[in-house]
Amino acid sequence: MTTAIGRQLDASAKPDPSTRGAWRYGRLWRDVPGSLLFLLPNLPIVIAGCVVAVVILSLGFGLAILGVGLLIIVGGLWVSRAFVELEVARLRTTGLPPIRGGAWRSSIGTETTLGAVLAPLAGPRWWLAALHTVIVNPIVGGVTWGLTITWTVGAVAGTTYWIWADRLSAGSSSGFAELLAPTLDPSDALLADKLWNLALGVVFLVTLPLVLRVLVLLHHAIASGLFGARPQEELRAELLAERRARGAAVSAEAGAVRRLERDIHDGPQQRLVRLQMDLAAAERRLDTDPASARSLLGEARAQAAETLDELRALSKGLMPPLLQDRGLVAALDDLAARCPVPTRTELAVVSSVTLPRETERGIYFIVAELLTNVSKHADARRAGVEAHATVDQQLGSRLTLRVTDDGRGGAHLEPGHGLEGLTERAQGLGGRLVIESAPVWDGVARGSAVSISLPVG
Question: What's its catalytic activity (predicted)?
Fold first, then answer.
């Protein structure tokens, strides 16, 4: 939410319309070093990529009939991709927006080793990378490199010509001004030549940031058009992510239902069977052995009390009463207070966001399971539950909860174990779970941290 102070800061940060042109021109000058860092070494990099890719691809096509050539072609495609990714990474120095790369898909399945190796042969983006490295970038890079050298040398040499012009040999021509006015005295011709070169240098210098910006924009547009993420690909990726999240949610909920069924079968159901048998025995002995019947009724009452306690405990697995009545912060504080390991909490951020009830429930059980793991397996002396709110340009506003401990570390994902189930539950909530834990070595305590990042708003 934007506050009044934030709106004032935003207003003060915007340039005045009367000085907006100068402000934008100043920004262009600020990006000049990064643009030169990209453009000046561009030609050697482009030539190296072209030569290496052409040699490997030519050899591969020549030997394609023998089969081994296909593997060599794949190597050439990987080289082309490497130079494309180098180009995209180098463009980040220019101050232009980073290029979000698209997926390097292939119509060949990667389930087998051979399919994974030969997949680039059936990937359109891989062949675009080869086209870019072998043909497009050498042409564009040669032109932009030549213009960069021309404008840079012209700006530097022209604006400094008056300093070193006197050091030229006396027998040499005084320059372009003397050609225009051959009747001038040598000293006047030299002065006119200095002024002429200074004027040219100023023109080159003033237009240098504009020219460099156009050149890097050309490279950026080509790389973005060929290798940037397309709207269709982003939509497909979002759809796949949504399907995976739904699948993970269904899997996590199915696992929770199975655990609940098992717990009911092994606990309350067995106690209710025992209770039924005790009541039946007490009913048979009520007339013949009242003392024994009274004893059986006492045991039945105890069984009923224990069954009620177990049912209450299981009902918390559906929706803990504290979470339902007082909210997520109070429920997490209660988890931390009941954890055998002393646990501190920093959850003020959670109160400032609004979460769906199912998301709160999922967060509660993830944190509860993580704290249980800390108390059982970490050998920790202290633990913590922290919450942070972040804003990502691509992911939007997110709430991150971080459970830490100073134990021995070694936490990792393993099929069929608890952390994998927590990962599925986090994906089902539209978030992700990240584990930061060094492997156990010589029993040295390295600690662990598990973060749950969820979208909000």
Answer: ATP + protein L-histidine = ADP + protein N-phospho-L-histidine
So what's the pLDDT on residue 137?
93
User: What are the average pLDDT values for consecutive 10-residue runs of the chain, which has 457 residues?
Assistant: 40 49 77 91 93 93 87 93 93 87 75 81 89 94 93 87 66 52 61 79 90 93 84 61 61 64 64 76 81 81 75 63 81 85 88 81 84 82 87 69 84 66 77 75 66 79
State residue 310's pLDDT score: 67
pTM, 2 dp: 0.53
Instruction: Return the exposure string of 279-290: e unless at least 16 CB atoms fall within 10 Å of the residue's CB, then b.
Output: bebbeebeeeee
